[in-house]
Design a protein that fits this description.
heterodimer, A: alpha/beta, five-stranded antiparallel sheet, 35% helix, globular, B: 393 residues, mainly alpha, abc type-2 transporter like fold, 2 domains, four-stranded mixed sheet, binds adenosine-5'-triphosphate, binds magnesium ion
């Protein structure tokens, strides 16, 4: 009990007929970064909202920092910080005013609050923008302020609901580094939801894969990947010097093809299932006179884990969500396969 | 987590809302324009005088005798002296009717053919006919009143003259014999309140309460939809602080509007405040308090901002007309009076009117104050638990 920051017990949320979160039992250890990975509508946000005391569970319960989320919601609130899906910022207030407002709600004495605001602004390199209205900021700048807003009360437990959604690659990696640093230096327990495999892989000590409200797998990223390593999926990075759209299309049409994604001019990231997958890929390219410069076998990713466990692709459902900037996937992550 | 904390948190929340409003030029302009429109509209569409001014009236003298001509002359004299009417000569009923239909005349006066004969030889009253325009009842009523009085005065003058000559008494004694009784009406305060003095307090109360009632659900559902409400909900603050903070900001905005209405009423329409200005403010705030629970209930039930606004408008509209803002409640049908007495706006309006028009102080509006307080407490007692629940669904 002591080493757990969060313990859920059959935590369930129903919206009329829909079971958004379905009897979830997880423990989040103190000081770890715990990832909730799942496609749109999996129930990640609903789960976070219950653990933040923003919504009641319909069944089951959970403790956060040892306090019951329903009966001791006041106590829970003192321990937590929330970066939700929607930014909690007022556009017509300056960065400083926004932070001050929320600081005041936590009864932080003025001197301490000012000190903390300045410190946090420096950490995210926003000290120059203190007196500018949030409405004039770019999404990345807003999100930096939004993240430090959640840290004003120095929370023991921080919830991050898709913190890099809609950010460009640079902001994304800065936010990720910031999260990592926060966890290492302050020992803050972090619960992070994402539908990006790479993010979960990079940041999380343990990942719970959630699908249709149920936790379908829970382990360290390494263990999860090991689980599918023996599975029958081939992932390769092929460099075809004379790559044509026809070739890509043909690879997609292969009977055992799972996903084909082009990266740059000549690289294809291909995943296919079955024993003959590797041969099929090579044959398909050769038949169209493709010149293969190199083939690298890729380590299984969390995406493969998801596929392995649920038997379905995660990406196709996911991409419609990405809002402003498509680079949110970050370097190395792959955009969706079109169509079905 | 005491009451001080609640107040402090609500102060910061309302600070935020007011800064936000201050920097939102469009909203600020609307805030100021709304009461302006309201006042000008109400101020000018409602007749604020019950006298005539330069109204075109047709006069047809069909009498052959001396009295008709004398009467016509006297009437012209009155018209000239008071400036109330502009008389034009007409032939008779048909001619006057045509004039009214064509919009040239507001009404007419006909001295019938046998007017002199009736008075002088037949021993009967000489009847003057007034022609009124039924399509404009307000004007007809005024015209009728004014003309009847003028004609009555003319009759009195004649009679007084005759009595003086016949009894050989002074003009004053003769007048006393003809008109032994006089009426003098005296109000509770000096001066002569106009219709505008009557409606200004109600319009003020209405403006403030409407502003808060429509503003509050908007402000809360808006933040809920945008997700910023979560920032407050996830902080370890009393849920009441959120409602209170929002209400404070909305009340401040409402009061600004109410005071604008008051300023306009004073400057343009010559309304005066007989009572204490602070008491007026207090009543406005009390009016908001009495009502704010209903706004919270609606916010709690409505799914989104639009639904909330719609429900509120539907409720506000009849309330405006049933609360005695424009018409005295006593003039309504009994059934409607019952409804009126169950609306807080009714009491706010009535108390404000007593203070502003009659200069009443706290003891004389004690009943209203208590009723408003009770409304407020009861509605809030219902609203707060509902709100707490609704925000966590
Ligand atoms: N307030 C609500 N009322 C009704 N249904 C809801 C509500 N909130 C969420 N849902 C439903 O519950 C399910 C889970 O939603 P949730 O937002 O938790 O998913 P998510 O994993 O966060 O997805 P995303 O990646 O899109 O953020 C969805 O089917 C959603 O439509
Ligand atoms: Mg979500």
């Amino acid at each position: 009990m002591d080493e757990n920051a969060i313990v859920t017990k059959d935590l369930t949320k129903r919206f009329k007929d829909l079971v958004a979160v379905d009897h979830v039992n997880i423990n989040v250890k103190k000081g770890e970064i715990f990832g909730l990975l799942g496609p749109n509508g999996a129930g990640k946000t609903t789960m976070i909202r219950m653990l933040c005391t923003l919504t009641y569970p319909t069944e089951g319960t959970a403790t956060v920092g040892g306090y019951d989320i329903v009966k001791e919601d006041g106590k829970v609130r003192e321990l937590i910080g929330l970066v939700s899906e929607k930014m909690i910022m007022y556009d017509r207030l300056t960065a400083y005013e926004n932070l001050k407002l929320f600081g005041k709600l936590y009864n932080i004495p003025k001197a301490t609050l000012d000190e903390r605001i300045n410190h946090l602004l420096k950490l995210v390199h926003m000290e120059k923008w203190t007196k500018s209205q949030i409405g004039t900021f770019s999404t990345g700048m807003k999100q930096r302020i939004n993240v430090i807003r959640a840290l004003l009360n120095v929370p023991e437990i921080l919830y991050l609901d898709e913190p890099t959604l809609g950010l460009d690659p640079q902001s994304t990696s800065e936010i990720r580094e910031f999260i990592k640093k926060l966890n290492e230096e302050n020992d803050t327990t972090i619960i992070l939801t994402t539908h990006q495999m790479l993010e979960a892989d990079m940041l999380c000590d343990r990942v719970g894969i959630i699908d249709k409200g149920k936790i379908v797998a829970l382990d360290t990223p390494a263990n999860l990947k090991r689980m599918v390593a023996g599975g029958n999926v081939t992932s390769v990075d092929v460099n075809v010097t004379n790559l044509t759209p026809e070739m890509t299309a043909a690879l997609k049409d292969m009977r055992n093809s799972i996903s084909v994604v082009q990266e740059g001019e000549s690289h294809l990231l291909i995943r296919a299932s079955g024993d003959d997958a590797f041969d099929d890929i090579v044959d398909t390219i050769r038949q169209r006179n493709g010149k293969i410069a190199s083939i690298k076998s890729l380590e299984p990713s969390l995406e493969d884990v998801f596929l392995h466990i649920t038997g379905k692709e995660m990406r196709a459902e996911v991409t419609k969500k990405v809002k402003t900037y498509d680079g949110g996937h970050g370097p190395g992550s792959r955009p969706a396969r079109r169509g079905r | 987590m005491g009451i001080v904390d609640v107040l402090r948190h609500s102060f910061w929340i309302s600070w935020k809302d007011l800064v936000d409003l201050w920097r939102n030029r469009m909203a600020l302009v609307m805030l100021i324009l709304m009461p302006l429109f309201m006042m000008v509209m109400v101020g000018y569409i409602f007749p604020n005088e019950s006298t005539l001014e330069g109204s075109p009236i047709g006069l047809a003298n069909n009498d052959d005798g001396p009295l008709g001509a004398a009467f016509a002359q006297q009437l012209s004299l009155v018209a000239e002296q008071t400036g109330m009417m502009e008389l034009t000569d007409r032939d008779g009923f048909d001619d006057i009717k045509e004039g009214i239909l064509e919009g040239e005349l507001f009404g007419g006066v006909i001295i019938p053919q046998d007017f002199s004969a009736n008075v002088l030889s037949n021993g009967t009253q000489g009847t003057i006919e007034l022609i009124t325009d039924q399509s404009n009842p307000q004007m007809s009523l005024t015209l009728e009143g004014v003309l009847a009085q003028v004609i009555d005065n003319l009759g009195t003058q004649n009679a007084t003259l005759m009595v003086k000559l016949g009894l050989n008494v002074s003009l004053e004694d003769a007048f006393t014999i003809v008109k032994p009784y006089a009426v003098e009406s005296r109000g509770l305060v000096p001066g002569n309140p106009s219709y505008f003095d009557f409606i200004a307090p109600g319009i003020m109360a209405m403006t403030v309460m409407m502003s808060v009632m429509t503003g509050l659900p908007h402000a809360i559902s808006y933040e809920k939809e945008f997700g910023t409400l979560d920032g407050m909900m996830v902080a370890p603050i009393n849920r009441m602080a959120i409602v209170l903070g929002k209400t404070l900001a909305q009340t401040a905005m409402g009061l600004i509007q109410g005071l604008l209405v008051l300023a306009l009423a004073i400057l343009i329409f010559g309304v005066t405040i007989q009572g204490n200005f602070l008491l007026v403010l207090l009543l406005l705030i009390l009016g908001v308090f009495s009502f704010v629970g209903l706004g919270i209930v609606i916010t709690s039930f409505a799914k989104d901002e639009q639904t909330a606004s719609m429900v509120l408008m539907t409720l506000m509209f009849p309330m405006m007309f049933l609360s005695g803002v424009f018409f005295p409640i006593q003039q309504m049908p009994v059934f409607m009076q019952y409804i009126a007495w169950s609306l807080p706006l009714t009491y706010a309006t009535s108390a404000l009117r007593k203070v502003m028009v009659l200069g009443a102080d706290i003891p004389s509006i004690g009943t209203e104050i208590i009723i408003l307080l009770v409304f407020g407490v009861v509605l809030l007692a219902i609203a707060v638990p509902l709100f707490k629940r609704a925000m966590k669904m």
